[in-house]
Amino acid sequence: MPIIMLSAVIGILFLQATGAIPQSSVGGPMLIALAFLLGALAVGIHDAQTSQRGPLGWIVSIAVALTGAFLSAPLGGMAVTMLLAPFVQGSSSLAAAGGPVMATALAGAMIVTLAGAWGAIWVVNRWR
Fold first, then answer.
1. I want to staple 15 with a disulfide (CB 3.0 to 4.6 A). Which of 6, 20, 70, 109 is the partner?
2. Are 9 and 110 in contact (CB under 8 A)?
């Protein structure tokens, strides 16, 4: 799990550093959501593979990871936004502030999203 989280954070920060995330259209949030989705998918695949699940177990692991990510991503994004609001310095949003504030927000939201996916898998694995 730490390697998946580190890889996902490095990936989202690389996208932001290279300017691949557009700031002026709906494409930016869509690309960020795709990165979160791929990170959660990696968590589900990792759990299914390491636990040597059958075909139904793979489906359940991936579905649970995605569900956990979809539940934790909005909460994590809101928490990160509230924590970083004092550092925006006159901008209307974190994306408009850009720079290290946006990078910190992306990294924090990715960590919370993947932690939610991992937590959901952990809860389901306790029931199995």
1. 20
2. yes
Backbone conformation region of residue 19, classed left if phi is above 0, alpha if psi is from -120 to 50, else beta: left
DSSP string, the chain: -HHHHHHHHHHHHHHHHTT-S-SSSTHHHHHHHHHHHHHHHHHHHHHHHHTT--HHHHHHHHHHHHHHHHHHHHHHHHHHHHHHGGGSTT-SSHHHH-HHHHHHHHHHHHHHHHHHHHHHHHHHHHH-
Q: For residue range 85-110, what is the model confidence (pLDDT) as tens digits?
A: 888 877 667 776 677 888 899 999 99
Helix 2-17 / helix 99-127 crossing angle, nearest 10 deg: 150
Model confidence pLDDT, tens digit, residues 12-24: 999 999 988 887 7
Please, are residues 124 and 60 in contact by the beta-carbon 8 Å criterion?
Answer: yes
**Side chain identity at residue 20, one-letter code:** A
